[in-house]
Design brief:
single chain, 263 residues, 3 domains, mainly alpha
């Protein structure tokens, strides 16, 4: 089994079991609800909303990565990986924080241990998909050979500037220029706490910002090239010359028309 296939199987198994364990512990908590627990908005969000959102997102990114061969889905898998790390830490903290309320039922202990195991399965699966697969290695080699060019980008200057000005904290201008990975990082860091956005805005203004292919996104003055009037005059003069040769107009009339056209 190659690393890509192994990564796919690990992620589906790990994320699938995580979904099952969340459902199990939530149902157990609701059945054995005690007044000691605070069932406020934040508590419900941390045990219900966030886990299901991130696990569902993980399954979606796994599908895009392997079934659709979309390497950019790796960035989504990295975000899910970050959430898995946070979940492990919070889960361990809550065990000690609510030690007196813990249910030491053997089934619960087994399911919790398998949950931790599934988290490490997800971590290893993401590692294989992001760093060890052949398609990613080929892409990294291509990036090493990549050299920025002075060629102008097809992306327009004004939309890039406006997106950076108003939605820079969400990295929308980077999504527009094709830089999906750094766009996601800007969402996570809220535009690098404002500093990254400011740097990008300055670079766009001075014409140093580049798209995903290394081409410059620069203001280009729209120059309307008027039709060369001298070419039209030359054609008209040629017609008068033919009329003069045929005797339709005199030499004097031809010279007069010539002077008018050449003014």
């Amino acid at each position: 089994m190659n690393k890509l296939k192994l990564s796919q199987n690990l992620l589906y198994v790990g994320l699938g079991y995580s979904l099952f364990s969340y459902l199990y512990f939530l149902s157990s908590l609701l059945i054995n609800r005690t007044e000691s627990y605070n069932f406020g908005f934040w508590y419900i969000s941390t045990i219900w909303v966030f886990p299901f959102l991130f696990v569902s997102a993980g399954l979606l990114f796994t599908y895009l990565r392997f079934q659709k061969n979309n390497i950019k889905a790796n960035w989504g898998l990295l975000i899910v990986l970050l959430y898995v790390f946070i979940t492990i830490i919070m889960s361990i903290v809550n065990i000690f924080r609510y030690w007196e309320y813990q249910d030491f039922n053997p089934i619960n202990i087994i399911i919790r241990c398998l949950f931790y195991l599934s988290s490490f399965v997800i971590i290893y699966g993401v590692y294989l998909a992001v760093f060890e697969s052949e398609d990613v290695k080929k892409l990294n080699q291509k990036r090493k050979d990549y050299q920025p060019s002075e060629e102008l980008s097809e992306k327009e200057f004004l939309p890039t500037l406006i997106l950076c000005l108003f939605l820079g904290g969400l990295g929308v201008h980077r999504f527009y220029s094709g830089k999906i990975g750094t766009g996601i990082l800007m969402i996570i860091t809220l535009g690098g706490f404002g500093i990254w956005v400011l740097v990008d805005f300055i670079m766009i203004c001075i014409g140093s910002f580049r798209d995903i292919d290394g081409r410059i996104i620069k203001y280009q003055r729209v120059v309307t090239v008027a039709q060369n009037s001298s070419m039209g005059n030359a054609e008209e003069l040629e017609k008068f010359a033919e009329l003069k040769d045929k005797g339709v107009i005199s030499e004097e009339e031809f010279n007069q028309k010539k002077e008018e056209l050449l003014k």
